[in-house]
Amino acid sequence: PMDTAVPAEMAVMVAAMNGFMRRLERQITAMRNLISDTAHQLRTPVAALRVQAELAAEEPDPAKTRQMLDRIAGRSRSLGDLLDQMLSRALVIHRTDSARRVVLDLRDIALEVIERRDHELVAPGREVVLQIGDAPVLVLADELSLSEAAKNLLGNALRHGAGRVQVGAGVEAGQAVLWVRDAGPGPDAQTLARIGQRFERNAASRGQSAGLGLSIARAVADAFGGRLALEPGADGFRAALILPLAEAGT
Questions:
Q1: Strands, DSSP E only, in the chain?
Q2: What percent of the chain has pLDDT over 70?
Q3: CA atoms within 13 A on the CB side of 101
Q4: What are 205-225's pLDDT values in tens digits?
Q5: Average pLDDT score over residue span 107-122
């Protein structure tokens, strides 16, 4: 940034230039992270898929071939999930600088993530319920970014949590909250301390990391002046986006 003293007539232009350069730096950093993450995370699973496919093609035993194909299908699904999360994070970071912010009701975001019915594909048979009240829960944000954050919170609960999953929105202590709770204990203390980074490198390449999905939610919360709260408790583990409340007509 240019921090040299300038005449008052130039101060507005300098401030605008500094703001533009900060946004440009964030975009370039996000692009570099995406490239480095992709190079690091995809090399191992793609190589494993290639080796397993070659072995399956040469295996004369039909039963063993079937086992290899099942492993290939499972790794392909994990790789698809990883790619989806990586691209989702890049999209969210881009939109937080470029998308227009409007007043949204977090109840609509919670309802939308349920009505997508993606959970029926991710975890068939798991019970997912909606918990919202009658009062609006208004925030000033970007709808797509919030939807991506909610989708990742739900996906994380389905993949790594246990029992019934609840998705809800409400006002708590004067702040807007969009939350997902499952009946499991949540990550251990050591993992919780690392969560919110781009991902945990060793686990993410195997499609097992909760870190990337939660880092997307944290990036969204930070962009809109809020925070991500990870709360283990007696009734299960809750991950919540906590955002400033907005007034209707803002």
A1: 102-105, 128-132, 138-141, 165-172, 175-182, 227-233, 236-244
A2: 88
A3: 13
A4: 444 455 677 878 888 888 888
A5: 85
Distance CA 17, CA 34 (A): 26
Higher pLDDT, 109 or 195: 109
Q: What angle is formed at CA 208 by the lines to CA 39 and CA 42, rounded to 5 degrees?
A: 15
> Phi and psi of 181, rounded to 5°?
-125, 135
Can you name the residues that pair with 228 across neighbouring β-strands?
A: 241
Alpha-carbon distance 167 to 182, whole Å?
Answer: 9
Task: Read off the DSSP letter of residue 197.
Answer: B
Q: Exposure of 51 by Cβ count < 10 A (0-12 exposed, 13-18 middle, 19+ buried)?
A: exposed
User: Which tokens belong to 210?
Assistant: 């909760």
